[in-house]
Specification:
Elements (H helix, E strand, L loop, with lengths): L7 E8 L2 H14 L3 E8 L5 E8 L11
Antiparallel strand pairs: 1-3, 2-3
Length: 66
């Protein structure tokens, strides 16, 4: 039998404003206990790109957040 020991989901989002990105991350942090912002960049066109790592289907994250 196989078991998932750890799993994570890496997502990259593009937001129109910095405020919009902060609101999303705040909401995500409230809903999902385990998430981490890996990278946040303001692009030349003033959009914000955010890369996060979060848990996947409630599986343990192992050392992904270290």
């Amino acid at each position: 039998m196989k078991r998932v020991l750890s799993a994570c989901l890496e997502q990259t989002f593009k937001f129109e404003t910095e405020d919009e990105s902060k609101i999303y991350i705040d909401r995500l942090s409230r809903k999902i206990a385990k998430c981490k912002v890996v990278d946040r960049r303001v692009e030349p066109d003033k959009t914000v790109t955010v890369k996060i790592i979060r848990d996947y289907n409630g599986h343990p994250l192992g050392n992904y957040l270290d």
